[in-house]
Hints:
The chain is α+β, with helices and mostly antiparallel strands. Helix content is 36%, strand content 27%. It contains 10 helices and 15 strands. The chain has helices spanning 19-27, 34-46, 80-106, 129-137, 156-169, 193-201, 254-270, 287-296, 305-314, 321-331; strands at residues 3-11, 15-18, 51-54, 70-71, 74-75, 115-120, 144-149, 174-182, 204-213, 220-230, 238-243, 246-251, 279-282, 340-347, 351-360. The strands form 4 sheets. The chain has a 9-stranded mixed beta sheet, with helices on both faces. β6, α4 (129-137) and β7 (144-149) form a beta-alpha-beta unit. The longest helix is centred in the first third of the chain and has 27 residues, at 80-106. The two termini are 18 Å apart.
Amino acid sequence: MTARILSIGTALPETRVDQATLRDLFAAQPGFDRKAQRLVGAAFDAAAIDTRHVVLPQLAGEGGGALGVRDGDTLLMPPTGARNDEYRRAAPPLFAQASRAAIAGSGRTPDAITHVVTVSCTGMFAPGPDYRLVRDLGLATTVERYHLGFIGCAAAIPALRLAARIVAADADAVVLVACAELCSLHWQTSSHPDQIVAASVFADGAAAAVVASEDPGHEGFDLDGFATHLTGEGERDMAWTVGDSGFEMTLTPEVPRIIGREIVGIAADVIGDLDGIDAWAVHPGGRSILDRVETALDLDASALAPSRAVLRAHGNMSSATLLFILRDLLADPSRDDGDRVAALAFGPGLTVEAARLTLRRP
């Protein structure tokens, strides 16, 4: 039984901030010498991002917010517990908003949901987001719940894979997949290049999808196949750990180079015939990653336009980002029934997750 993404819903925090505003704020931190300030300017300006959404209004120079992260132009470093408390407060409403939108677009009602798969790597608590969705959306108390945590930017694809496996085993299953990431909670006021690069790209957002058996009367994406690949390098180049002052990202300049070196063989292995792909959904870990993928796979300049558009408007929202791209492809009137879509995402390790999808129009 082929599983189909019937609909995708998204949600964003109310606060939207210009990339230039964040650049100037970060460059103004005490202790940043001229070299660090130049690096901040170069990283933020080269990110190909115009705006980002954040759950911390203070980052945009606004008042309010339960977590104090700014004193004038100085960014503060709250302890991990305080940051996680803000995650517990701010993440569930975004999970719920994206999920309501996905359910509304699926032609199903909340009581039809049989399984919930939640995804996040920017906070943790129990009972967790999966429990909160059952309560907040009024789902049946018998819904099966799964949470995929700390998988990073690539996690939407394993979540969709799990949903497809569930539907394959039970044709009556209706699976809600929901991703929410609050990356802004973990900004580090460090002049280390890894932290500057992380600060220049990551943002907050949520996305959800409803996956069920293929429905001839409902558009969506058929989930045709999945694959995963561990690169021979990268274990120390992309990592995500819990520190005393938030979660700490390692994101070295080697990441785009590793992807550029290995993506041809990986893509052929996990996607198959690249000439048969009509559209690409590539996670925009950063502009340089998209550039490397485009060059290595010899793609037309327009192939990664959907990924670049999401990056420019929203930044890198970690696991939620790929669903934003698929949402835009589904809404694109120029895309036809039967179009073949390749999805790629990259996570700590360095891990490559891939999916093959087919666009279906009624």
